[in-house]
Amino acid sequence: MKAIVVKPHQPGMEVKDVNIEEKVGKGQVLVKTLYTGVCGTDRGIVGNKLSFTRPQEGWSELILGHEAFGQVEEVGEGVKELRKGDYVVPVVRRGCGVCLNCKIGKQDFCETGNFVEAGIRGKNGFMREEFVDDEIYLVKVPEAIKDIAVLTEPLSNVVKAIEEVMHIQQRMVWNCEDGAYDCRNAYVVGTGPIGTFFSLLLRTYGFNVYMLNRRDPSPAEEYVSTRIEAEFVNTTKGVDHLPKADIIVDTSGFPSAFVPLMHKMNKNSILVLFGTQTGDKVQIDADLVTFMVENNIAVVGSVNANKWHFKSAVNYLTMWKEKYGDLLNRMITTVVPPENAKEILENKPKGEIKSVIKW
């Protein structure tokens, strides 16, 4: 079958036919791939910038792709809920099978680090024409959102991060007098698909959202910020006019982008670190540490998501479809066939929010 493969720790990628003999076993289904999303992790692997990537055991190459949407073609014995023709999204991370978190479906909090992630480390991904997977790792998707369901995986990570925020902030009374969050302000640093989803989810909670970047918005970003009633801020023009932040979410991975903003954090606020990069350096001095201590500033790093977060992401997409369907469709800014995947895997298209491959 046709697939997109890389050789871990070597730059470049290739679209080629691969010989995979996968039989549908007990509790498994065969899924025809319809769309796969492209993100910074994929480009990091293709550009040989991620040290942790590795092929599946017994392979020298890795099939790329962890953001997928497909349709069930065949079901095996013992499959309980899925039927031929159902639309599904696969969960990315598979647990170590040893630690308690992995045993109870919270592999996003694996304690051994011996998990595998499809298309990233230790397991072939979904940038191929079809794949066999266990039913337990597949989330059913309603037909009503099949045009945007490829966005489920990135949104699941955002759902998980906000769940962590809400749990941590139970350390005090954080909501407003009316029980909502309309009096709280959120800075979202970075305006790609993850930043857009953080902004949309925080607006759904009621936060006043400020979408921050080091440049003016693209037409797509301006449409998004206006549509969800958030303010787009070019930080190079200054941030003095912004109210104090109750939450800062960094999706850029650049300390130079979010550390200078921390002096604007409110008492009892929280910083969420989501983006990952290399090389960028900013000094954190004792004055900033004192500020964080004296103001009860919490810091949390968040990565990955489990099946519950995928299910929640599907629910949000379904709910948002009626109100923000135009916005969600506009988030998919580039669609190419696998033959042209090189142009979006090696370079980020101008004005991109989300690029996808149509199979």
From TrEMBL:
Matches recorded under SUPFAM superfamilies: GroES-like, NAD(P)-binding Rossmann-fold domains
The region annotated as signal peptide is: none
Which GO BP terms apply?
non-phosphorylated glucose catabolic process; protein tetramerization
Q: Which parts of the sequence bind substrate?
A: 41, 117, 153, 157, 304
Q: Which top-level group of life is the source organism from?
A: Archaea
Protein family membership: Belongs to the zinc-containing alcohol dehydrogenase family. Glucose 1-dehydrogenase subfamily.
Name this protein carries in UniProt: Glucose 1-dehydrogenase
